[in-house]
Amino acid sequence: MGSVDGDFDGLRADERRMEVIEWLNALLPEYCLPLDSSDEELRELLSDGTVLCHIVNTLIPGVLEASWGTYSSADQQSDNVNKFLSVVADMGLPGFTVKDLEEGSMSPVVDCLLVLRESVSSGLGNDTSVNGSKSLLRKKWQVRETGRPLVPGVGQGKASPGEDKRNALPDPKSQQKAPAFSGQKLHEIFQLKCGSHADLPAAKISEMMHSNSLDNAPTQSLLSVVNGILDESIERKKGEIPHRVVYLLRKVVHEIERRLCIQAEHTRSQNVIIKTREDKYRSKIKALEILVNGTNEENQMAIKRLQIIKEEKSKIEEKRKLGEQDVARLMKEKEKAENIIASLKKEMEVMTSMHEEQLKKIEINAKQMEEYLTAKIKEVDSLLVQSNKKIKEVEATSQLKSQLWNKKEGIFQNYMNSQQLYVKDLRISSQSIRNEMQALNMELRDEMSNFGSGLKCLVDAAENYHKVLAENQKLFNEVQELKGNIRVYCRVRPFLPGQDKKSTTVDYIGENGELLISNPVKQGKDGHRMFKFNKVFSPFTSQAEVFSDIQPLIRSVLDGFNVCIFAYGQTGSGKTYTMSGPSTSKQDWGVNYRALNDLFDISLSRRNALAYEANRAVGSTALNERSSRSHSILTVHVRGLDVKNGSTSRGCLHLIDLAGSERVERSEATGDRLKEAQHINKSLSALGDVIFALAQKNAHVPYRNSKLTQVLQSSLGGQAKTLMFVQINPDVESYSETISTLKFAERVSGVELGAARSNKEGKDIKELLEQVLAF
Ligand SMILES: Nc1ncnc2c1ncn2[C@@H]1O[C@H](COP(=O)(O)OP(=O)(O)OP(=O)(O)O)[C@@H](O)[C@H]1O
């Protein structure tokens, strides 16, 4: 793009220069500079300032006079240029510097000339201001209206009207090219006053005709001559024109014609040049348009590429950022690694120095050891020498000693003989002792046989113990059966802290399982309801007391019975309290902990006779693990192996914390909770139905009505023993739940209780129990 601008600038400068040259050619045709002249050619024409002054004089005749001369000095040249510039400045037009004219670009000079042209052309005609400025300029430069400058020696005299046209300055070139006619001479000829042309001497005219001075004279001057002659002719009132004057006129006219022809020729050639230039510029413009179109497409492409590049750049920047982060991380890691390496290096250095020190020490020790060992070797050598000496000495002494021993042997032989005699005596006495020992052995054998018969009696007694134990178990279980296979214990929960103790529904708790519940709404006889169970535990009954009543059932599990203990009651009535206990401290233990503990204790006490295999399963029946909405079942399977006869017994204990017994309609449950409550109710009523059927000894027991009864099937019915804790809340607000719970329990226990009561043997239960416990 820059180059295109440059081209345009160049083009504009060329055009402007051509414009100036064209104007100059029109104004001063005598110079006739080719239109495509360069800056340098224009500079050559204008540099001495003469032409510039000539321009001013042509536009405002007589304002300036250039310093003429074939070879004008540098001072003259700058003087001419300064004159021109001061005229331009006086006209209020922008000028240029002398330096611009001497070197560098000619555009300031061209601009100045164009502005001057514009200013003059716009001020032509009846522009008084321009005329005014012209007169001012003339005044300034002391020029008369005739146009002659008031320079001494130049054009002095009276100016006549019409003399203006004749006052044009002579062409400096003509002066240069025609030395025969000096500038002053030609001037004189063309500046002749009226009537003088006719009076020109013949020699002078012939000199003019034969010389080429007309060739060099400015056209303006030639026209002035013609005009002068014509004026003269008019003045002389059609007087006869001398032949020589006619000839001169012809010559002048001929010259004018010749010049016009040249000018026309020149104009034609200029036109051709201009046309070719125009074509050139048109083709250039087309090329530029194509270039511009191409550039637009390229621009769009470039914009698209730029966008892609921008996107790529942003991606690259992101990558670069990530890279920088990586680099930062790696730098940190590198720093860490360098730190570690530095610390390791330090450690290495320390270790190396330590090793070196140790090596030195070892070397020192080795040296010391070597010295020590060489000393030792020396010592050993000397000792060896000494020991050799000693061996010899010892050999000598041993010889002496053997002689001595031989003497002592003789003495010992004598002693031995005497001792043999003594041993003979001892043998005789030992024989008598042996006889005594045999007698004693006989006595011991008799005693041992007596002890064996005693031991046999003990073994027989032990065997009898097993039989008695079995009988005991049998009796115990009979007692349990007599007590009933289904038992219902009611437990009344105490009031919780913050509850009003006066608002109780429990009126009376009898020793034989009676429970009187009062209706808070009804008064009198109808306001009370009596229930009867196997036992009723008051709010003050401890965990241990409750368990002592069910302990025999746990014992029967080890004897191969299935036992099922469960707690039934509304939420918050104490089911978990009874079954598990409020805490894990021993005194708070519920039935579960105590039952398991008891099983272990009894199995341990029976370990000599029976080996048990202490298995447990825990589960819950509903989706929710909260005890109030799920049944929690703890099952213990017991297998006992009789050590003596190898027989096995299997028992199973189910400990169940049932879900809350609230009625669905009362719980106001909806959605999943409703379904859950319905399931719970269903399983509880199924349990009731099973127990009821069992108590009535029905042929069909509906075990399959619920999952709960299916799971407990083996522990409900048959020889299985079932115990139900009916938990009640004494609070008045829970009255209706309490009644429905008790009714359910009564339904379960009612028939069984009746059966137990009608059994005559039931009266002997207490006695039987006492017998068993006494045994
Ligand atoms: N015999 C009792 N002595 C003292 N506090 C009791 C007794 N029975 C129950 N409680 C207390 O009453 C509250 C409710 O008891 P518990 O949680 O055992 O009831 P629950 O019937 O198991 O309730 P849920 O059906 O919601 O599980 C507990 O704070 C418990 O400690």
Automatic annotation (TrEMBL):
GO terms for cellular component: microtubule cytoskeleton. GO terms for biological process: microtubule-based movement. GO terms for molecular function: ATP binding; microtubule binding; microtubule motor activity. ATP binds at residues 569-576. Residues 485-751 form the Kinesin motor domain. The keyword ATP-binding applies. It holds the Pfam family CH. The keyword Transport does not apply. Residues 148-180 are annotated as: Disordered. Residues 14-121 form the Calponin-homology (CH) domain. Keywords: ATP-binding, Coiled coil, Motor protein, Nucleotide-binding. Residues 299-354, 423-485 form a coiled coil. Belongs to the TRAFAC class myosin-kinesin ATPase superfamily. Kinesin family. This is Kinesin-like protein. It comes from Zizania palustris (Northern wild rice).
